[in-house]
Amino acid sequence: MTERPDWTGRRLEVEIGPVAHGGHCVARYEGRVVFVRHALPGEVVVAEVTEDAGGGFCRADAVEVLTAAPGRVSPPCPMADMALGRDRCGGCDWQHASGETQRELKAAVIAEQLQRIAGLDWPVRVQELPGGLLRWRSRARLAVDRKGQAGFRAHRSHRVIPVEDCPITVEGALAEVTNRRWRPGAELTVAADSTGDVHVTAVDHKPQRRHGRAVARQVQGSGVARESAAGRSFDVEVQGFWQVHKAAPDAFTEVVARLAAAPAGGVAWDLYGGVGLFAAVLAEQVGPAGSVVLVESSKRAVEDAVANLRDLPQVSFRAGMVEAVATDEDLSAPDVVVLDPPRKGAGRDVVESVTARRPARIVHVACDPAALARDVGLFAERGYRMTELEAFDAFPMTHHIECIALLEPVDPD
């Protein structure tokens, strides 16, 4: 059997097909699937193969557009220029698409994932958050190259692309980071909070160790971001989780509140509760006579949540893995469950634990449409169907999407 030659570096003229999950589109060449970045459906492009591991597909970047789609625009970021080839920053996927086109592509991805994985035909509209396509990102992680320059990694690579600025980050957030030299191999976390303070934390590649743990250096700011949402203030350790889009916390709490509709005096669970954003909304709904249980695996996040919600005695806190805590029979059965799992989704164990308690409403906040579709399928196996879905372009210029789904029992009895 003749071994097929490696296509890496080869340039192919291809017609671009539909969008796929992950920030690329699908093309075909000589019987193989080619996943092409920096292209749009309907275009004809020259694509350079960047990865070829054999088998039925390879990966490529568009390097020349022969026939452009109506939604194509000039990238506002110079690091997304097609002329840079493999030296393009890997942080964004859709700099070459208009905002309307990006949202249409993301809606198509969500619909395809729901249909393919969960068997649901669901019309999807992705909503725009206030603020536009640029200067929305309040948090960023950067790497440092061998010369001590800070930047972002190339797509599917450890190679660092140095930058002077990033137009999707909050104005001025990276000034302290890009204007100085760092220890090669360091990793940097930048957080611009709602008060305007910028916090920069550096972790060296070979840090000093204390009690077996890496020691981070606080370079700028206190390391505790003061955030504001739903009419409240929240203190968040900068390495912890908070929505990166400036407008997302307010938008998401409004939708979660509407979908949850926790009854006065009722019981609500806030799973993967973080620093208490959704628990605060649920506490207002159930009132002093009700109860909210916040479950979170990060002990530091739970500490922050306790401090943030100290004026809401109806909220109790459990530090631990959700799949373990949710099976605790000492917890009162919930009327409503809100869960905001990590990118991989909730998974079978959590879904089974939650549905075993038969809540009237489950609100699922998801940052990955494939994971959402898998969870929706698992909920369906347990007698719950998705009855509402709201999708948001909470990560403009990237392929990421935020969805909030309501699931209700097929048979309420």
Write up this protein.
- With 413 residues, the protein is an alpha+beta fold.
- 20% of the residues lie in helices and 31% in strands.
- The chain is built from eight helices and 24 strands.
- The protein has helices spanning 99-118, 175-178, 248-260, 277-286, 299-308, 322-325, 348-355, 369-381; strands at 11-15, 19-20, 24-29, 32-37, 44-51, 57-67, 126-128, 139-144, 150-153, 160-162, 187-192, 198-203, 209-210, 213-214, 217-220, 224-229, 232-237, 267-271, 291-296, 315-319, 336-339, 361-366, 384-393, 402-409.
- The strands form five sheets. The protein has an eight-stranded mixed β-sheet, sandwiched between helices.
- Helix 1 runs parallel beside helix 8 (369-381) and helix 3 packs parallel to helix 4.
- The longest helix is centred in the N-terminal third of the chain and has 20 residues, at 99-118.
- The radius of gyration is 23 Å and the shape is globular.
How would you summarize what this structure contains?
By secondary structure, the chain is α+β, with helices and mostly antiparallel strands. The chain has helices at residues 99-118, 175-178, 248-260, 277-286, 299-308, 322-325, 348-355, 369-381; strands at residues 11-15, 19-20, 24-29, 32-37, 44-51, 57-67, 126-128, 139-144, 150-153, 160-162, 187-192, 198-203, 209-210, 213-214, 217-220, 224-229, 232-237, 267-271, 291-296, 315-319, 336-339, 361-366, 384-393, 402-409. A hairpin with a 2-residue loop joins β13 and β14 (213-214).
